[in-house]
Amino acid sequence: MKTFGGPVLFLDRSDINTDEIIPAKYLTEMDKEALGPHLLEDLKLEGFSVNGSWRGSARVVVTRANFGCGSSREHAPWALEVNSITCVIAEGYARIFRQNMFNGGMLAVELAKTAIDELFAIAKNGAVSCSIDLDAKTFAFSWDGGSKAVPFTLAEFDEALVRAGGWVEFADVKY
Amino acid sequence: MGKTITEKIFEAHLRDVPFAGTNVLSIDVVMCHEITTPVAIVDLQRRGKDRVFDPLKIKAVIDHVTPAKDSQSAMQAKVMRAWAGRHRLPDFFDVGRNGVCHALFPEKGFIRPGYTVIMGDSHTCTHGAFGAFAAGVGTTDLEVGILKGVCAFRRPGSVRVNLNGNMRRGVYAKDAILTVINTLTVNGATDQVIEFRGDAVDAMSMEERMTLCNMAVEAGGTCGVCMPDAVTAGYLWPFIAGAYPSKKAAVDDFNKWHSDPDAVYARTVDIEVSAMEPSATFGYKPDQVRPVREMPDIKIDQVYIGSCTNGRISDLRAAAEIVKGTKLASGVRGIVVPATPLVYRQAMDEGLLAVFMEAGYCIANPTCGACLGMSTGVLAEGEVCASTTNRNFNGRMGRGGMVHLMSPATAAASGIRGKLTDPREVMR
Question: Cβ of B256: how many Cβ atoms within 10 Å?
C-alpha cells in the first residue's frame, strides 16, 4: 500500500483538466519519472506558481469540483505520484480520473462543498498539513494554531484497490 | 420497472459484483493506441504476464502521432508494433493503413449494438452511436482489459437528451452537441450515460451520431448512446450481412437493446434543434458556447478541419461545399486532416482535396495531431484556431493558443473571412 499524508497544495478552481495536470506534449514519455517536472505546468491559477514551494513538499491536493476532467490519460495520476502526491481531496472528480487514481492504489476522496470551503478558509492562515487514517476514514488537518478532524467515506471497491495496491493486483488474483 | 439500453448491456455482460455497486463487465472490444497502451504493455512484461485475453477482440492502431515525429513517438510506435506482432493481432493498423481510432474502428465494422467497449482514450464514448456501451479508461484499466477482458464500473445512471425537430440550414450535429454540453455543463453528466433520443437523432446518419456521442465526455458523460435502428443496420450491413437474412431482421434483433418506454432516467432534457444556430465555443471550457453571429470580431490564424469529432467524409464534404471557389483569407493557414485512409481516398476521388488545395489548404495525413497539440498544426502563443475538434482547454493545441470549437461548415466559412463566421453568410 502507498503512503498517504503530508503538506497540502490548495488549487482553488473547479474543472482543472488533465491537460493542465500534464500537457499532451509529454505523453510520448514511457518513463513515469520523466513526467515529474511537468506536473501542473499549464495550470493558470491566481496565487499558484508552477515552481512554488509546494513542489517537492506537497503530498496532498485539495481542490474544487470536477477535478481531472478531459483526457483519460493516466499520466495525470502518474505525474502526481512521482511527485509523491498520492491523495487528492475534492468536491468531485471526472469519472476516469477518479478510477485511475484508485486503480493505481491512490486516493481520490470526495468531500461535501461545505467541508472543502472550510479547508480553503483554513488555508488562508498559512501552511496546512493532512494526515490520513485509512482504518478510521479520517483526515486530520493541522496548521499553525489549530487542527481539525474530517471524516470521509470510501466505496468498498475503492478501498480494496488502495489496500491491494491497485487494480492489476486485485484483478489478477480474482479474474 | 423498465430498463435503459445501458442497464440491458450491463446485465448481459455482468461478470462479477465484488462489492455492492461495483460491476465487473466482460468486454467485447478492447481498443488500443500508441499513447496509452505502451506503458501497459511494458508493465505486463515486467510482471511476466505479457498475454492478451483474445487477439480477435483487441483492436490496435498508431494514430496520435503518426508517422512518428521524434525518437520518443517512434519508440511508442515500435513497442505497439512489436506487441501486435508477437500476439498476432489481426487488427493492427500501422502507417499507411492507420487513422484516427474513433473514425477508423467504426469504419472497419468492429462495433455492434449491445457491445461493451473500452479504450485508453476519453473519446471512446463515440462508439455508443452504435447502441454500445463504450467508455474511455486509463492505462491500468486498459492493461487489465488486455490481460483479462474485464473492466469494473459503477453502474451509471442515464441522462436522456431528446433532440426534437429539424435542424436548419447551416446547423449540424456539432452545433447540436455543443448546445447539449452548454445545457448540461462540463460535469452535468458525470457518472451518467447520455442517451440521445428524439426525431432529430432518428434522422441523423451514423457519422452525425458519432459526432454527437463523441463529445458526451465533455459533459462528463461515461458514454453517449443512440438506439440502434435501420440507419445502424445500413451502416453495418457489409459486416453483418452473413449474420442476418435481411436488414429488417437485423433491426428487429437490435430492438432488444432499446430502452424500455418506462425506463428510469436521472434527468430528461428536451432541446428543440430547429431553434439552434451555428455555434462555437469561447473561453477554455467546452460548455462555453454561443451563436457564432454573437462573436463577430474574433480574428483567426488557423483553420483545422479533422479529428475523431469531425474528420469523416461527410464533414469534409460540408466544408468543401463552402470552400469551393474561395481562398483562405490573407494570413490564415488552413489544415485538413482526413480521419482515415478511406476518408482521404474518398475525398481525393470526389475532388474535395483539390477544392481545399485550390483555396490554399494543406492536406495532412490521418492523425490526431494538432487536436491535442502533438503535431500537424500546433499553435504558437497568442494564436487563434477555428477548429472542428473537441477540446478548447487552455494550451490544448499549443501553449498560449486559443481554440474555438465549431462545425466543419463554420470553420470553412471562418477561413474565408479570416474571423469567426456564420456559415449561412457564405453559403450559396
Answer: 12
Number of domains in chain B: 2
Q: Is residue B51 part of a domain?
A: yes
| Residue that terminates a domain, selected from B270, B305, B333 | B270
**Which residues of chain A make contact with B285, given a CB cutoff of 8 A?**
15
Q: Are residues B37 and B156 in the same domain?
A: yes
d(CA A110, CA A90): 5
With cut-offs at 50, 70 and 90, classify the pLDDT of residue B428.
confident
Domain shared by B110 and B257, yes or no: yes
Nearest CA in chain A to B368: A24
* Shared domain check, B335 and B244: no
The domain containing residue B109 runs over which residues? 5-270
The residue among B187, B375, B378 with the most chain A CBs within 10 A of its CB, best to mutate, is B187
The structural domains of chain A, ordered by start, are 6-174 (3.20.19.10)
Strands B14-16 and B22-26: antiparallel
The Cα A75–Cα B208 span in angstroms is: 31
**B264 in contact with chain A, both atoms CB, cutoff 8 A:** no
CA-based nearest distance B76→chain A, Å: 7
Of B220, B238, B270, which residue sits at a domain end?
Answer: B270
| B 134-163 near A (Cβ less than 8 A) | 136-141, 143-144, 147-148, 150, 152, 154
What angle do the packed helices B206-214 and B230-240 form, to 10 degrees? 110
Write down the mean pLDDT value for chain A. Answer: 96
B289 falls in which pLDDT band (50, 70, 90)? very high
CATH code for position B321: 3.30.499.10
Q: Does residue B187 have a pLDDT over 90?
A: yes
Query: Do B83 and B209 sit in the same domain of this protein?
Result: yes
Residue A171 confidence class, pLDDT cut points 50, 70, 90? very high
pLDDT digits (tens, 9 = 90+) for B223-278: 999 999 999 999 999 999 999 999 999 999 999 999 999 999 999 999 999 999 99
Domain co-membership, B12 together with B149: yes
Do residues B53 and B26 lie in contact, with contact meaning Cβ atoms separated by under 8 Å?
no
Residue B126 pLDDT: 98
B245/B325 same-domain check: no
Q: Which residue reads 490548495 in cell numbers?
A: A10
Report the mean per-residue pLDDT for chain B: 98
Q: Which residues contact B238 (CB under 8 A, 6 or more apart)?
A: B109
Question: What pLDDT score does B363 carry?
Answer: 98
- Subunit contact B186:A66, Cβ cutoff 8 A: yes
